[in-house]
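Here we describe the complex-level prediction in full. Unlike the single-chain runs in Section 2.1, the two entities below were treated as one system.
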Amino acid sequence: SAVISQKPSRDICQRGTSLTIQCQVDSQVTMMFWYRQQPGQSLTLIATANQGSEATYESGFVIDKFPISRPNLTFSTLTVSNMSPEDSSIYLCSVDGLAANNEQFFGPGTRLTVL
Amino acid sequence: KQEVTQIPAALSVPEGENLVLNCSFTDSAIYNLQWFRQDPGKGLTSLLLIQSSQREQTSGRLNASLDKSSGRSTLYIAASQPGDSATYLCAVYNQAGTALIFGKGTTLSVSS
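The structure predicted for the assembly as a whole is:
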């Protein structure tokens, strides 16, 4: 496995503002993903962060709301834009390509509360 | 559309018991299946990955099985300990082998 870190670990934000979450891996990885875990729910994939090209978004998620950057093979950011209380969730990044069997590994998550 | 279901939603057992967590999925054409553990307010820890060609994987006191034809996987925990208390998540990979589709998890409480 590898060390995956996320910043910030938690934040409390006001409605209408934006927050950028960073994900850093200590090894180069092919694939990086962003998931959302709403309170009491399981994880839902937001998008796949592609290095050198636009992210691929899942149904129900759009680039204007969740812009993603992937400038290199070890780093990605997810921005939650124009936040509302419904955006209060844990946001997690994950990576694969560290193991031959495509096992995915997750960062510690960012707990976001929107007031 | 692939759906993943985990039963039971919650489980309480005394220390030392062996237990089984269940996971079912609607589309048997999966790539791989992975079990995770999530502690309250934390990220996910990978426990076991079963490739689609495999039937089981073992790690310490954990054993995971996969029956693709019936759309089921089980996670067996032997000799449970209070430190095993957490939420256990089952996830299947989409056919492209990239994105994970998660169940809602089983929250396990092991009392001493």
